[in-house]
Write a structure and sequence with these properties.
By secondary structure, the protein is an alpha+beta fold. It has helices at about 5-55, 60-70, 100-105, 115, 155, 160-200, 215-265, 270-305, 315-330, 350-365, 400-405, 415, 425-435; strands at about 75-80, 85-90, 110, 135-140, 145-150, 310-315, 335-340, 345-350, 375-380, 385-390, 440-445, 450-455. The longest helix is centred in the first third of the chain and has 53 residues, at about 5-55. Bound molecules: adenosine-5'-diphosphate. Adenosine-5'-diphosphate binds near residues 394, 404, 416 and 427. Adenosine-5'-diphosphate binds near residues 395, 421, 425 and 427.
């Protein structure tokens, strides 16, 4: 397996190498274009000065003079038309020079070898230690004609300063590579830790530990990962609780039904007892049926938003229709109901929203006190509508309010046990409101009452 670490190092080193090649090509082109003519001119001047000096000082020994020049950093070649030739200084790697070039210079012309040296991208003209890469000038000494070819001795010119610069460059490259090695390890380590954490998460171990204090993208990733792990753990807990709740909520009516059917199987039972048992059994069957209906609805809501069949409808009219259906229950509980429900159209799923109002109204009736009141209002503000269900009933403590949207949660059993319920109603309400892009808020005080406010977008 090629690890990220190896890949990173290979890529970085590759990038350094490519940068070096590009830098070399650019500077070489720069030498050929800009520096070479200047270099040629400079050396032509030096060569001409040497020739002039030799001509004006017939008393000097030419070879000694040239030998001295070679000692201060020049490579020289002296030739005449009688077959004499001599090299001074560091030897040329390539001593080839066409006869015609020598003749040209002997005849008084100047040879610009440095300028004419091949303009090829990969030829490092400046460093080429060839006789062709030199300047040729005619030289006259003691009445004799020579051709003198010179070029600077690169080896000699490479002073301590250049060597120092070379070392700095080399050390910089080595240190960069070492730092890349260390830095890459530092960068890759959290990814390896994250991979291990993912593996342990997949095995169901949620208490993973990661360094989330880093102030960069990896720190961000670790924090998101920890959040995800916590969320997954919560969901897993919820799933377990959900299954145990369902099992309990299905099991208890079933055992009641079983118990009462056993009792019914007694011929000596009075008519009254029989009727009472049948009523209890019917009640349990109703509870089971509403539980399964609510579970089915929750399951379909959980799947996705496709369950929604949206259309425009009059929401005021819808709630009024619902109140008519509950009128008997309201009267039976001796409750006072007042409402303000203007005609307002919204776009939503009428059937699902009806379930919302149904749950809120039935709760307001269920958790109320005799002779109390219920108030329902609807109003449009900006791009939203606000539906409020207020009651002056049992109310809830803050701790209870925090949990009422949890599945299967039923507040204080002592107060509510006489009332039918599954604890799923408000979680269905919250899911439907969320699917419509709305929000739900609750204000409640124990023994004073509760108000549920639902905000829905008009469109
Ligand atoms: P259910 O009514 O089936 O128990 P819900 O999810 O509708 O389940 O409600 C959850 C709990 O919230 C109820 O058991 C009840 O204790 C509390 N609750 C809901 N509405 C009200 C209300 N209007 N007043 C007081 N308590 C309420």
């Amino acid at each position: 397996m090629r690890t990220l670490y190896v890949k990173f190092i290979v890529i970085t080193t590759g990038m350094m190498l490519i940068s070096f090649i590009i830098a070399f090509l650019i500077s070489n082109t720069y030498y050929h274009q800009k520096i070479k003519p200047v270099n040629d001119q400079k050396n032509t001047m030096v060569a001409q000065n040497i020739a002039t000096f030799a001509k004006e000082h017939p008393e000097i020994i030419l070879e000694d003079y040239l030998e001295n020049l070679s000692a201060v950093g020049y490579q020289l070649y002296l030739v005449d038309n009688l077959g004499y030739e001599k090299f001074f200084g560091e030897p040329f790697r390539d001593k080839n020079l066409p006869i015609s070039t020598k003749d040209l210079v002997l005849n008084g012309e100047i040879f610009h070898g440095i300028l004419q040296f091949p303009r090829e991208t990969f030829v490092t003209g400046f460093f080429a230690n060839e006789l062709r890469n030199s300047i040729g000038v005619p030289l006259e000494h003691n009445g004799k004609n020579y051709a003198l070819f010179i070029r600077p001795d690169i080896k000699f010119l490479f002073s301590e300063m250049h060597v120092l610069l070379g070392w700095i460059l080399l050390l910089a490259i080595i240190l960069t590579i070492v730092m890349v090695l260390i830095n890459t390890r530092y960068l890759i380590k959290p990814i390896s830790t994250l991979t291990k954490a993912t593996e342990s998460l997949a095995k169901g171990k949620y208490n993973v530990e990661l360094d989330s204090n880093r102030d960069d993208e990896l720190g961000q990733l670790s924090r998101s990962f920890l959040q995800m792990a916590r969320k997954l753990e919560q969901m897993e807990d919820m799933r377990k609780e959900f299954i145990s709740n369902i099992s309990h909520d299905i099991q208890s009516p079933l055992s009641n039904i079983k118990g009462y059917t056993n009792l019914l199987d007694n011929d000596l039972l009075s008519k009254e007892d029989r009727r009472q048992y049948v009523t209890i059994i019917n009640g349990e069957i109703k509870r089971l049926s509403s539980l399964t209906k609510q579970l089915l609805l929750l399951a379909s809501l959980d799947r996705n938003e496709d369950v929604m069949k949206k259309k425009a409808f009059n929401i005021g009219e819808q709630i009024k229709g619902l109140i008519r259906n509950y009128q008997w229950a309201i009267n039976e509980n001796g409750l006072m109901l007042s409402y303000s429900l203007p005609d307002i159209e919204i776009v939503g799923d009428p059937s699902l929203l009806n379930t919302v109002w149904d749950n809120l109204l039935s709760n307001a009736i269920k958790y109320n006190k005799p002779n109390s009141s219920i108030e329902i209002s609807l109003e449009e503000r900006g791009k939203s509508i606000f539906v409020t269900f207020g009651d002056t009933g049992l109310g809830m403590s803050d701790a209870e309010v925090d949990k009422i949207f949890d599945r299967f949660y039923r507040a204080d059993k002592a107060r509510t046990r006489s009332v039918e319920g599954t604890g799923l109603g408000l979680s269905i309400v919250a899911t439907i409101v969320k699917l419509h892009g709305g929000q739900i808020a609750v204000e409640s005080q124990e023994n004073i009452g509760s108000t549920f406010i639902i905000e829905l977008p008009v469109k």
